[in-house]
């Protein structure tokens, strides 16, 4: 296609690849890293979904195992997203890559992929310091590799982000970035030392490493709210650009989210392809050679797969619609998006339980409620992401999705559909216990059609509203909710200006 | 970062998201589809790697099972790439999407993810027509959804690719695209009918569906070689743009490859996180409470993981370097790239065998040879992709990677490193059977360093060559291998012009 741009042309790379000095745009390497990190973040849901539960032995030990594994999953997810955020920061400083940096990045990725394992070791053996020791070793390795990347990039300044390579405070920048990169590993080094004689302190230090970015952000936010935005010292203004006030790269948030949605949507097919092809011998012996009957016994699994895929696919669709209207992702949006993704990662668990317990009707109710709750939390955090964007809408959103914008109502409807549907299904199971399965399946079938008809329904609703206002408008000359850009801007100005 | 473009700006989308008519650039939806398809393509390696082999029962039935599963894997991979190619074609015609198209695309994806399962059913029960019946049902569903997409896009022509929406032959285009989309499903419908009474014909028809694009391409290529490029009739020139002569979208080839490399690199960590966390009870009973000893027994698994990750990561690195120099991907390059990816998908199998058989030294030799062979084929097909690009270098490559370009020699060295190393390791195991494991591990450790030092080594080699030529150059005034752009262009003109 003659009119098709190559991604490098399209991304505005000025043909650096052709100068022959081995410089490359980092775009594709970052996508690949995002894909790796998103897979690693969702890996730990597998031990949870594969926990075999038989009702007769559903005692406290199994409950404890399940709770432990869910905790491991959530912590791993948080941990990997912290590593991912650090990776974003690092490659906001390093603008271009060459072969050496690409190889160093691969080494960094390899170490990160090992983190979940050390973490699950730590949870399985809370009294043995080996897990925490290995964890600290990984974090220190990652820190050292990243420090080498920073050192290398500052040694060849053409690799740096243009704003830094043209800055007069380059040495100060290097100090600062090295400090950010090595802060966590230094804490982990102390934690590793403590793990040899008094490891509770190690856990404390480790928690500090993980929650530090969020805590400092929350503290800064509170301080700004209480004391008003303080004047940062003149020289450190540049620093803040790469530390606290910098919004996340929208492109990388999208790539990471896509990876999580894609792997979660296909997690169940991995199991189905492996476990649900019946053995020819079994078909002969148990089902009198009838393959259809044999497959019929797997029916709930297939239903669960299609249900899970549809839900994840539609949540991706909502995310996609939302981020079409997003200009830049703030930190709060990043955190809320991460929480939404963590619950999306829990969906296969919900559906696995739904399908596994379909044979035991007395467990059915509970598993359907768990599914509804997970869907509710995944979608409500998506909604919260949008709310966070609306709070700083001038910076974060395109005009059409702001208050009063043309797509605002549609966006609201899209984001509200799943929270409402799951809440409704949950409530119905309280009143109509007997029909809970039917209600759940009805929801699964109805929601995709609701999405298809959303625009139509919304138009009808707005027309109805306008009709109502028209009746009332006979007394008032100009309605405050006129649906055009002027009104949107006027309304936007009524809101407190984003700080 | 103020200087960072959002992907939509960067991709040259003219702010259509803000007009409020629900039009969207299809960029992110295509990346998501690529991620899903690449995961599905590599899923079927899991049943292969999870086949438990104990040497005492390694009889013909296990061999047959393994061979069957490998065949299923390769066929599934081919099948998914055919579906992926069709998806590329379709969204070359449809340039923009709206909500309805995004939802239809999700439905299409959901059906495609089910194809591997029907295929493995077909192989497990070759005498039962149900598998082929389900397969045909899937293909027909996909075809119908795609036909709806085409119909919808032609009904709202602003969704179409600009060249088509401005064309005078729009109706003819629609006929043609619908024909392409429905050709396979129509064949499958006949196959489904035949499966009811004489199913060998169904298999034949199915094979036609899968291999049709490759066969027609090969036939066209042969015809062009033998008879010279024929004059296509004037009106069908436009058609050919979207059917035969159209190179694949480079961006989507990259996205699909990234997905395969990312999922393959992490396939082993999925197993490790799930299976290799020792049970606290076992540690107490079998290892006297020593976690280190317990982990020591998993040592080979960890080594296998790091080895596999490093190999896949470096093969990705080579692929990344190669595609930096690629302008457009031709069909031949697409096919060779697919074959390379299929072998990359086999890498976890090789490493799983290496780690599983580490305890049985007499099987070691064989599994190391299998590993070397898989690495060799994966890397030699990457090399072949480059060769195919060089054959049509004006169209397919940037100047620096063409014959005589500045990066040509480095690219050659990068692509040749893995084929040479694996071939060397394979040959050494023939002479030094006793040290085969050591040789294999040496290769794994040496190759990453070789990549780091490649540029340096190449410079030394070129300097040596130049020195030699300098000695000979005293008799000849101008060497034919001068390493600058003029020479490169001059040399390029000596080659047959790309047809």
Throw out a few tags for this protein:
globular, two-stranded antiparallel ribbon, disordered C terminus, disordered N terminus, 2 domains, mainly alpha, 499 residues, 75% helix, homodimer
Please write out the topology.
The structure is a homodimer of 499-residue chains.
Chain A: H1 7-10, E1 24-25, H2 27-43, H3 45-49, H4 60-93, E2 96-97, H5 99-124, H6 130-155, H7 162-165, H8 170-197, H9 200-227, H10 237-242, H11 250-275, H12 280-286, H13 291-296, H14 299-324, H15 331-356, H16 361-391, H17 393-396, H18 408-431, H19 436-473, H20 485-494
Antiparallel strand pairs in A: 1-2
Helix pairs in contact in A: 2-4, 2-5, 2-11, 4-5, 5-6, 6-8, 8-9, 11-14, 11-15, 14-15, 14-16, 14-18, 14-19, 15-16, 16-18, 18-19
Structural features, described:
- Chains A, B: This is Endosomal/lysosomal potassium channel TMEM175.
- Two copies of one chain form a homodimer.
- With 499 residues, the first copy, chain A, is mainly alpha-helical.
- The first copy, chain A, has two domains: 208 residues, no CATH class; 199 residues, no CATH class.
- Chain A is 75% helix and 1% strand.
- Chain A contains 20 helices and two strands.
- In chain A, strands 1-2 form a two-stranded antiparallel sheet.
- Chain A is globular, with a radius of gyration of 26 Å.
- The N terminus and C terminus of chain A are likely disordered.
- At the A-B interface, helix 1, helix 2, helix 5, helix 11 and helix 13 of A face helix 1, helix 2, helix 5, helix 11 and helix 13 of B.
